[in-house]
């Protein structure tokens, strides 16, 4: 890992626990995705760089047939 990558990693590791308190979640994109994929038999997807997963949790409200793998380098 380069020094720049380490700096970014450390920054997001420090602030990740505060994301839910300081970030807002825009529901419109999730509604749009849910509408477009409604009626699909099975949906398998991945969210790379999911952060705290706030958008992923919303997706499950709109897509009951979703299998989602969430990955983020920071805990």
**Domain count:** 1
In quaternary terms, these chains amount to single chain
SSE string, helices as H and strands as E: HHHEHE
What would you call the shape? elongated
Strand order of the largest sheet: 1-2
Unreliable stretches covering 5 or more consecutive residues: none
Q: Taking all residues together, what is the mean pLDDT?
A: 89
Cα-atom radius of gyration: 15 Å
Beta-sheet strand percentage? Answer: 15-25%
The largest sheet, given as strand count, sense and whether it forms a barrel, is: 2 strands, parallel
Helix fraction bin: 40-55%
Helices and strands: which structural class? alpha+beta
- The DSSP helix count reads 4
List the helices and strands and how they pair.
Elements: H1 3-15, H2 19-22, H3 27-37, E1 43-48, H4 54-62, E2 66-71
Parallel strand pairs: 1-2
Helix pairs in contact: 3-4
Overview of the molecule:
The chain has a two-stranded parallel sheet with strand order 1-2. It is elongated, with a radius of gyration of 15 Å. The chain has helices at 3-15, 19-22, 27-37, 54-62; strands at 43-48, 66-71. The protein has one domain. Strand 1, helix 4 and strand 2 (66-71) form a beta-alpha-beta unit. With 75 residues, it is α+β, with helices and mostly antiparallel strands. It has four helices and two strands, in the order H-H-H-E-H-E.
What's this entry about, in short?
The chain is α+β, with helices and mostly antiparallel strands.
